[in-house]
Amino acid sequence: MPIQFGPEVNRAGSDSIKWKRYANQDILPMWVADMDFHVAPEIVQAINERSDHGVLGYGSDNPELMNLIVDHCQKHYQWTIKPEWIVLTPGVVKGLNIARAIAAKKGKPAGITALPVYPHLKQHAPIIEFENQTFLANGFDQSWSLNLKEMAQNITEKTGVMLLCNPHNPIGKVYSKQELTELAQLCIKHDLIICSDDIHCDLILNGKPHVPIASLSEDVAQRSITLMAPSKTFNIAGLDTAFAVIPNPKMRKQYSEYMYGLVGHVNIIGSQAAIAAYKYGESWRLELIEYLQKNNQLIQERIDSIKGISMRPVEATYLAWLNVEELKLDNPQKYFEEFGVGMSAGAEFGDNRYVRLNFGCQRSLLKEALNRIEKAVQERVLNLGK
Fold first, then answer.
1. Rounded to whole angstroms, what are the CA distances from 355 to 96, 111, 128, 132, 151?
2. Do 273 and 363 fall within a single domain?
3. Which of helix, strand or coil describes residue 142?
4. Where are the alpha helices (DSSP H) in 281-312?
5. Average pLDDT, stretch 40-44?
6. To which H or E segment does residue 163 belong?
7. Strand order of the sheet with strand 86-89?
8. Which residue, among 231, 241, 247, 212, has the nearest Cα to 281 in the 3D structure?
9. Using omega within 30 degrees of 0 as the cis cutoff, is the peptide bond preceding 116 cis?
């Protein structure tokens, strides 16, 4: 196993938001989507070479990065895009808010998304939310599916943007071409902008193809803003480097103008890291996928063996969505903290019956977390039975 995935990484005192939350406490940090792995050595080298130049002023859009993104989209998603469609942006979350601003400019300030979902898709702007039954347990494989009928009922004259998460965080779902086609038809019918957060698209664990919704047709492309980044894939989230693919020139101009006024531009260190990631990081990514697949298998087997907790298969991401409804907890996240596991609260995503576990970590840490989770569940089940 490559060294970056094998040894324990001591992140204490490294300004890590993930590890700082539980500093000096016996609580394992398994919450925010931030992996505990060393990045590919080529990325570190690229950062060092750029800093060795000695001048760290304002950067500009790098043609090499644009061309690498074009090649990446073609190779991995069979999606043909043009360099001029790309707008580098300092983070996917900022891109989501810019998409909302564009919709508001059209006089349709509300957005719609499917719960449970990454909190930033349902925060920081007027949102029409609908209940978690928007996703249904479906078929023998216990996959998730969109309730498009319910979604349509929640679209009003004020709804201007569909906020899609593909792959879907926190449930780890990879949308099929058919599912995306049906969703796109709904957006066309109601004249919605589609803003798709595809940040986890290079972390698919079950071999399904990633389909950018904008790749379906010209009509869909012209209403789409697709947000991608090397950040989650290559563990460089702290460098705030992402990009939006916007085929529609008018929408792209609006996006660029809002971005300049609201959030600024990508930094030069982040650009160099992204270039190195897309240029040299593929073998590292494939090794990461293999490691995450084994972590995922371990979690599924352990959770399936514990009475009182369950999970559906994770298709993508390094995030497990654990159902603890049977435990009848008012605050599941706080309860598991008492047993030394710091997970994300399901309520943040729209469903308090769950907690989210980050398994982008060394296997030894994951095994200890699962042991603590098992102890917490068994004790709660025992108390409920009294």
1. 24, 25, 23, 14, 24
2. no
3. coil
4. 282-304
5. 97
6. strand 159-165
7. 86-89, 242-245, 224-228, 193-197, 159-165, 110-112, 127-128
8. 231
9. yes
Specify whether 259 is located in the same domain as 154: yes
Structure tokens at 75: 């190779």
Cis peptide before 167 (omega within 30 of 0): yes
Domain that residue 340 falls in: 3-39+282-385
| Residue 131, pLDDT score | 45
Q: Indicate if the pLDDT at residue 150 is higher than 50.
A: yes
DSSP 320: E
Q: Residue 133 pLDDT more than 50?
A: no
Statement: the pTM of the whole predicted model exceeds 0.85: yes
Higher model confidence: residue 232 or residue 386?
232
CB 220 within 8 A of CB 180: no
At 195-253, the pLDDT tens digits run 999 999 999 999 999 999 999 999 999 999 999 999 999 999 999 999 999 999 999 99
N-term to C-term CA, the chain: 46
State which of 280, 308, 330 marks the end of a domain: 280
Collapsed DSSP state (helix, strand, coil) of residue 32: coil
